[in-house]
Amino acid sequence: xxxxxxxxxxxxxxxxxxxxxxxxxxxxxxxxxxxxxxxxxxxxxxxxxxxxxxxxxxxxxxxxxxxxxxxxxxxxxxxxxxxxxxxxxxxxxxxxxxxxxxxxxxxxxxxxxxxxxxxxxxxxxxxxxxxxxxxxxxxxxxxxxxxxxxxxxxxxxxxxxxxxxxxxxxxxxxxxxxxxxxxxxxxxxxxxxxxxxxxxxxxxxxxxxxxxxxxxxxxxxxxxxxxxxxxxxxxxxxxxxxxxxxxxxxxxxxxxxxxxxxxxxxxxxxxxxxxxxxxxxxxxxxxxxxxxxxxxxxxxxxxxx
Length: 305
Description:
Layout: E1 10-14, H1 19-30, E2 34-39, E3 48-52, E4 57-58, E5 68-71, H2 83-106, E6 113-119, E7 130-131, H3 142-155, E8 163-169, E9 171-173, H4 178-188, E10 191-195, E11 204-206, H5 207-219, E12 225-229, H6 237-247, E13 253-257, H7 259-266, H8 270-273, E14 278-279, H9 282-286, H10 296-304
Parallel strand pairs: 1-2, 1-5, 2-3, 5-6, 6-8, 7-14, 8-12, 9-11, 10-13
Antiparallel strand pairs: 3-4
Helix pairs in contact: 1-5, 2-3, 6-10
């Protein structure tokens, strides 16, 4: 009797140069998936395909026979919020989602799964208690509106019959990007900057757990809808900075910068640094996910050792 041949499922990841995309790609390959990427830069590599939002172009081979699409592309929210940058942040998320949907529809292809990044900014800035996935923003601002539009574009894939997941990410810890990379720079000079009094919540998740959770989403077909991604234990910015001090450089001086000074320099964007959003992770637990990094000291030590 001939042996059955196992066919690898094909996963397409956008945001090829992002730290989550790279980490996720390696994890998927270890788990016997065929991994391809969409990139805004042309490449000779067989698994990297070109796309251009300005010209509505995607190399169609990228979408053909793709089982799962992981949409992680997006111009970094940490860039200064000029009018031009805001448009880039919007287009790189919303316009790109629309383009992927339209091209899938054009070739009449239904991905089994469409997973889109989103953010805890969906809930607004001033919130009460732990936010669950069915909660709506209590106070709309530019970031919450961006996230709403981002998620609406993901929901279009229902029309194709795809399973849809929207990952509302907290702050991702990784020395190669995001907030940790920036704060580490100051610690090398024994200076740690704390925004305001440091009493605001600091929802976080390690980058390895983000990649692990996305794999969990692909493998567990009952999972769907919006899901908060964070750790179970709630900490404040102060607690995070004190952990950094303990684990990196005990002689670091923590300097508290008043909110009004930060507002002078970065204006509207300062509101992001003083958000009081706390995330419920009950849905992550219900879906049987186990974190590798739940303790902030453990996560920081992983990045510096």
